[in-house]
Write a structure and sequence with these properties.
By secondary structure, the protein is of the alpha/beta class. It is 33% helix and 24% strand. It has 5 helices and 6 strands. The protein has a 6-stranded mixed beta sheet, sandwiched between helices. The radius of gyration is 15 Å and the shape is globular. It starts with 5 loop residues before the first strand and ends with a helix. The structure holds guanosine-5'-diphosphate and magnesium ion. The site of guanosine-5'-diphosphate has 15 residues, from helix 1.
Length: 173
């Protein structure tokens, strides 16, 4: 039942306007979302989404607010989703700064971290190449994915990818 669900915490990081809220809202409409999802927290900086994957339900708690390093550590996140807009070079620089901060300043090496290039529907305004972003993701041992929250493109895959990666880190080997 719902109360037995594991809750995994995901930090949504990135500049204002890159599409963090749009992506989170699209998560709620995913085919992987369980029927009893609690959807009446749209104004909150903490949203819960119940995901049914491989016959197992998990709750992702998505936290989308400005946090300093103390909060980033104290919240004990299970994953980091770092978002930028392909149309905004400064937002890419901020995303790279977040990756550096997570892996080096905070020395969090094992937690799944995904670099998300959003707004790929605006391809004619692209300011950051796929190759450049892929290589920086690799440098920081992160996955890289391209999404469009506007077109709901690759958003389900992102949601499932985040949960799959978290489950892998929690599987005893
Ligand atoms: P946040 O500040 O990171 O939460 O960004 P929002 O989710 O509020 O999005 C900022 C603006 O970008 C809004 O006008 C969104 O409609 C728009 N937006 C978000 N995602 C996309 C996308 O994938 N494509 C396009 N074209 N616009 C987007
Ligand atoms: Mg927002």
């Amino acid at each position: 039942t719902n109360s037995d669900n594991v809750v995994y915490k995901v930090a949504m990081l990135g500049d204002n306007g890159v599409g963090k809220s749009a992506l989170t809202n699209q998560f709620m409409t995913s085919e992987f979302v369980a029927y009893d999802n609690d959807q009446d927290e749209t104004e909150s900086d903490r949203q819960h989404v119940n995901v049914l994957l491989n016959s197992e339900e998990s709750t992702l708690e998505i936290i989308d607010r400005l946090m300093d390093n103390k909060e980033l550590t104290d919240e004990c996140f299970d994953a980091f989703a770092v978002v930028y807009s392909i149309t905004d070079r400064q937002s890419y620089q901020t995303a790279v700064d977040h990756l550096y901060n997570i892996r080096h300043e905070l020395a969090i090496k094992e937690k799944p971290t995904i670099l998300i290039a959003n707004k790929i529907d605006l391809v004619r305004k692209r300011k950051v190449s796929k190759e450049e972003a892929r290589s920086v993701a690799k440098q920081y041992d992160c996955k890289y994915t391209e999404t469009s929250a506007a077109l709901n493109h690759h958003v389900d895959e992102l949601l499932v990818g985040i949960l799959s990666q978290i489950r892998l880190t929690h599987t005893p080997d």
